[in-house]
Amino acid sequence: MRWHLVSPSAVAQTARKTPPPIRVVMDNAYAPFAFQSDEGKSQGILIDQWQAWEDKTEIKVEIHAMDWVQEEQLASDSHQQIEASHE
Question: What is the pTM of this model?
Answer without folding.
Answer: 0.67
